[in-house]
Write a structure and sequence with these properties.
The complex is a heterodimer of chains A (992) and B (67). Helices cover 28% and strands 16% of the residues of chain A. Chain A contains 29 helices and 39 strands. A 7-stranded mixed β-sheet of chain A has the order 13-12-27-26-25-14-15. A 6-stranded mixed β-barrel of chain A has the order 31-35-32-34-33-36. Chain B is mainly alpha-helical and 67 residues long. Helices cover 78% and strands 0% of the residues of chain B. The chains are: A alpha/beta (992), B mainly alpha (67).
Chain lengths: 992, 67
């Protein structure tokens, strides 16, 4: 293995327009490139690298370093090749005595103000300044080194992940331009002029600035000025492996740059088809959780959840779990057990868990975390279009003229795609934001939403109906598209429904709180502004009408013909890295892989034939149904891979009561999460760095996950599931995840063409990938919908039953923040904590004032379901009457407050609407105190049970289950066994 | 269960009656695990208080379809 270095062409590619190719001569060699290409890039295409410093092909040319000068026949002077476009017949010379002299002169000036510490510099071996000094043959610096310089400038080490050393800076502005062009944050600038010029994040330390730590500046820096602290500490990597990020549904491709089995840094891969070389603070820097001391690395069992954990061998743990599942099935019936797949594990691992449930357990009691996030997407898009997935690839946004963002906050939750979207918005696309909160995207540098429809939580359907009503009644519908592509009868019926004045913006204004004129204006813009694309998130799905709203958006797209072509579509921004994949792989209790119902005899028989067992034709239990059945005494055993239902699911009291009623809960995870507090078997999981497989991102793109180090726990997750299945008596004998993918491809028509060989060859593919689309499908529904004709669905607005009252007069809605991810299992175990160490409650100044609340006060947040406490932040991003918080920290436990109301079709919880009251307080809620105590009791480890680990920190090296340095300091517990509490600093979280 | 069934009925109530009943019955068949359907039918046999009339009809249709 070697270190992968992508070719830098110096300037970005220009799109090839048919007939607009240009042939020129560079150093006597002819080369043909698209018009608009720079001479620098053309030279590189021809195999000639022109010296450069301020140019790199991720940024527009700048022409400041004067190193890339060339001579062009018939032109005076020596133009910069980066800013000079090619012309037909141009004769370019990249090498001459004059050019060499000029370049050496430029380098002399740079080096006269640069520390000569190359051998001890962290960028030694990876420094373009060093390289260029070599390329131009610099042998002396005639000016000496004693003149005015910047060598004593102090370093800025405030950012936890990278340093800024102005002494090494050549002010090439690559970092400033990366921040502007790639990331779109505009946090960096050049202060001063001439010799006083200096790069600065707005005249303050990086940590206090607007910098979002995406790493684009670090990547762009040609010297050691901006460099990862991990490289400073460990040195340069020696090989790299291309893999897929395990955060969020963007699915960025990264190079894991390694020293042996140790990650030195994660660098976004330029050829990554989802991210094109960009990254965010999570994927780029927050990977240290994989080696965090709180990882559990040995299996553990216990008979009762009040017993301390006992470390055992893999054989004993797997054998115990299998025996318990079989005992429960014999005692309570075949359907008394089930499983939950993980949206953070690979497709292959998810596939195996649902296979285990269906084939080894013999029922369909399998579900996944999409139940609580995007299950309405599955229902709504399948009903209207015929399949459960976003319609476009990310690059489609480059062709959008109008972008509609509904119930999503991409700059925080999908930051790399947000940068892509912002790039298009800065280039002129119009923007409509539909969200109760003034998300960052509403106003950014060089971006301002044309409409921000700040509707009341729970009124999405009213708003989308009002928009569709406007399109219809103002004659803006694309009737030709509808006639050709949609079911006529369903459309006619829907037309009668939507045309009703009850759906007009004027009628809906009182419900949504959005002025009718704005609803009408947004509708006109969407319908007439050119290609219009909808992007949405959990602010759409996590409602009692989540599925209805998804269908409402699909109706609108069909109504205007904004589907089936570039720049349009209906696109869910998936929350977790593989939530699309986990759904694709048959994680729902009613569907086999590929979204085919279990009652479909032909489909079921195909699985029975290959799996060798009869399969159940009835749907199984969804997660909330499992809890209900547990409370009813008919569901007793659960295998949970990489999910933390106790933390993530609504109405925590109900969930914990249900978990406590089960007799065998098996949790497979990186950390001892909240659900593990109710588990009888803990199987340590493996991180994405430790296994092979695939993830599927929000654009249906399958990307390879590649093992860069051996599993620290000893087994990859797919191997653990295999072992459990084998112990249950249903054999699984895969030697590599590629064999699992081969089986998926054999059984699933939309994946029929997927192989690891193809993924390695093409980088990634988007399903459907089969004989009809051998290299995948970037845009769906091009010539027809998956279901044939598109189907308009009636979307009657039905108000949520969650209402404000005098007792609970405010509405709580929840969301995410950039630096943290989901329940925080990974990011809280990284330096990302520096940005968001606790969840806070955003409250409007008016609501705060009437309650006597000041910024930073501890407040109690109460609903009819429960109460928690957190600190207040006064903010006018919310409307009066609405409060907002994130859900990343366990000490807040926002789901104590959320209710049991769910989407009517899918049981997705209504996280986004909870009636609450807020008041000042001085102490944690009773629930928080009680839960902390319960947590302490249920995470104890019988320290003397495992040989060599009896209460002595480090006695089992780095592989023991003493992640918090446990040493028996908590005294005796349980049946007299010395015990330690795992993760005493703060309750651990999940991988799922 | 009553709340869940009624919320399904509230969605389909916007459709013509026959289609609404069929849609609700289909939803129960496709997405409800057998013991949930049994529970619903037992509740109906006991009178089904609080259940939307559409749910009554859909459950009867479901029962007929199964028998």
């Amino acid at each position: 293995m070697t270190l992968i270095k992508e070719t830098d062409f110096g300037t970005p590619p220009r799109g090839a327009v048919p007939g607009a190719w240009v042939t020129l001569s560079i150093d006597g060699q002819e080369v043909t490139v698209p018009s608009g290409t720079s001479v620098m890039r053309a030279a590189m295409v021809a195999g000639t690298q022109i010296p450069k410093l301020c140019a790199t092909d991720s940024l527009e040319p700048f022409g400041s370093c004067r190193l890339c000068l060339v001579e062009i026949e018939g032109r005076r002077g020596t133009p910069a090749s980066c800013t000079t476009p090619v012309e037909a017949g141009m004769q370019v010379r990249t090498r001459s005595e004059r050019l060499a002299r000029l370049r050496r002169g430029v380098m002399e000036l740079y080096i006269s103000d640069h520390p000569l510490d190359c051998l001890t510099c962290p960028a030694n071996g990876d420094c373009e300044l060093q390289d260029m000094a070599g390329v131009v043959g610099l042998r002396e610096v005639r000016y000496g080194y004693a003149g005015a310089n910047h060598l004593e400038e102090p370093k800025d080490e405030s950012n936890p992940y990278f340093t800024f050393d102005p002494a090494k800076c050549i002010v090439c502005s690559r970092c400033v331009r990366a921040c502007e062009e790639v990331q779109g944050t505009f946090a960096l600038t050049v202060l001063g002029r001439g010799f006083q010029s200096k790069i600065s994040p707005g005249g303050q330390p990086f940590l206090n600035s607007e910098c979002v730590s995406c790493g684009a500046c670090v990547q762009a820096c040609p010297t050691a000025t901006l460099i990862e602290k991990s490289v400073v500490e460990k040195g340069q990597p020696e090989h790299s492996v291309v893999t897929t990020c395990a955060y969020c549904g963007v699915g960025c491709t990264f190079k894991a740059e390694m020293q042996s089995n140790e990650v030195v840094r994660m660098v976004p891969y330029k050829d990554g088809q989802a991210n094109h070389g960009h990254s965010c603070v999570k994927g780029r820097f927050a990977w240290g959780y994989a080696t965090h001391r709180e990882r559990i690395l040995k299996p553990m069992i216990r008979r009762k959840i009040t017993d301390p954990w006992r470390e055992v061998s893999w054989e004993e743990a797997i054998g115990y779990a299998a025996a318990e599942f079989r005992r429960i099935q014999e005692q309570y019936g075949r359907d008394a057990v089930g499983g939950i797949t993980s949206s953070r594990c690979t497709n292959e691992e998810t596939y195996l868990v649902q296979k285990l449930v269906r084939a080894a357990f013999g029922n369909n009691n399998v579900d996944t975390c999409a139940r609580v996030c995007h299950s309405p997407t599955g229902y709504g898009l399948k009903a209207t279009f015929g399949t459960s997935a976003g319609t476009q690839h990310f690059d489609s946004v480059d062709h959008a003229d109008v972008i509609v963002v509904i119930g999503a906050n991409p700059t925080d939750a999908h930051p790399v795609f947000a940068s892509h979207m912002k790039h298009r918005l800065r280039a002129g696309a119009r923007l409509i934001v539909i969200d109760p909160r003034r998300i960052d995207l509403v106003q950014q540098p060089h971006i301002r939403a044309d409409y921000h429809l700040a509707l009341r939580p729970g009124t999405n359907v009213a708003a989308i109906n009002a928009i569709a009503h406007t399109v219809v009644t103002e004659g803006l519908a694309n009737l030709e598209f509808i006639r050709e592509r949609c079911e006529a009868e369903a459309f006619d019926r829907w037309l009668a429904f939507i045309s009703d004045p009850a759906n007009s913006p004027e009628a809906m204004e009182a419900i949504t709180g959005v002025p009718a004129a704005d609803l009408r204006g947004a509708a006109r813009l969407y319908a007439t502004g050119g290609n219009a694309a909808i992007y949405y998130g959990l602010g759409v799905t996590e409602h009692s009408q989540g599925s209805t709203m998804v269908m409402g958006m699909a109706n609108l797209a069909m109504l205007t013909g904004n589907i089936g072509k570039l720049g349009t579509g209906v696109n869910p921004l998936r929350g977790q890295n593989n939530v699309q994949g986990s759904c694709d792989m048959g994680s729902f209790p009613h569907e086999f892989p590929g979204y085919r119902h279990v009652s479909d005899t032909a489909v079921r028989e195909s699985f029975e034939a290959l799996w060798g067992v009869p399969l159940e034709r009835e749907p199984g239990l969804r997660i909330p149904n499992m809890f209900d059945a547990a409370m009813a005494g008919t569901f007793k055993g659960l295998y949970v891979q990489g999910e933390d239902v106790v933390q993530s699911d609504p109405n925590t009291r109900h969930v914990t009561a249900a978990m406590s009623a089960m007799e065998c809960v098996v949790v497979q995870d990186l950390f001892l999460n909240e659900t593990a507090g109710f588990a009888h078997v803990f199987l340590p999981g493996s991180s994405f760095l430790e296994k092979d497989g695939t993830f599927t991102n929000a654009e249906r793109r399958l990307g390879r996950v590649r093992k860069v180090m051996p599993p620290r726990n000893g087994m990859a997750d797919w191997e653990i599931t295999m072992a459990l299945s084998n112990a249950l008596g249903y054999p699984m004998q895969y030697r590599h995840p590629s064999e699992i993918m081969d089986e998926i491809a054999r059984l699933t028509p939309t994946f029929a063409g997927v192989t690891y060989e193809k993924l390695d060859r093409l980088g990634s593919v988007q399903w459907p990938c089969n004989d009809q689309a051998p290299e995948g499908t970037p845009v769906m529904h091009v010539d027809g919908f998956v279901r044939g004709k598109g189907r308009f669905m009636i979307t009657q607005y039905v108000p949520t039953e969650e209402r404000t009252t005098s007792r609970f007069p405010l509405l709580l809605t929840t969301g995410r923040i950039l630096s943290q991810y989901n329940v925080g299992a990974q990011t809280r175990r990284t330096a990302n904590e520096v940005w968001h160490s606790e969840d806070v409650l955003e409250i409007h100044p008016w609501d705060a004032e009437v309650r006597g609340i000041q910024d930073g006060d501890l407040v109690a947040l109460c609903s009819r379901a429960g109460e928690t406490t957190l600190h207040a932040r006064i903010s006018d991003r919310m409307q009066p009457g609405i409060v907002y918080t994130t859900f990343h920290h366990p000490k807040t436990a926002a789901n104590v407050v959320t209710t049991e109301f769910t989407d009517w079709a899918t049981d997705c919880p209504e996280y986004k609407v909870t009636a609450v009251q807020v008041r000042k307080t001085h102490q944690p809620s009773a629930w928080q105190t009680e839960y902390q105590e319960q947590r302490r009791r249920t995470t104890q480890l019988a320290a003397d049970a495992a040989p060599g680990s009896s209460g002595s920190e480090g006695s089992n090296g780095s592989n023991g289950n003493h992640p918090n340095g446990g040493n028996g300091k908590n005294g005796s517990h349980g049946a007299g066994a010395p015990a330690v509490t795992i993760g005493t600093k703060e309750p651990a979280r999940t991988q799922g | 269960m009553v709340h869940k069934a009624n919320s399904i009925a509230r969605y389909f109530a916007a459709y013509p009656h026959e289609e609404a009943v069929a849609g609700i019955a289909d939803h129960f068949a496709k997405f409800w695990e057998p013991r949930m359907r049994r529970q619903l039918l037992e509740y109906l046999e006991a009178g089904g208080p609080g259940l939307d009339e559409l749910v009554h009809e859909a459950a009867r249709a479901l029962q007929t379809g199964r028998s």
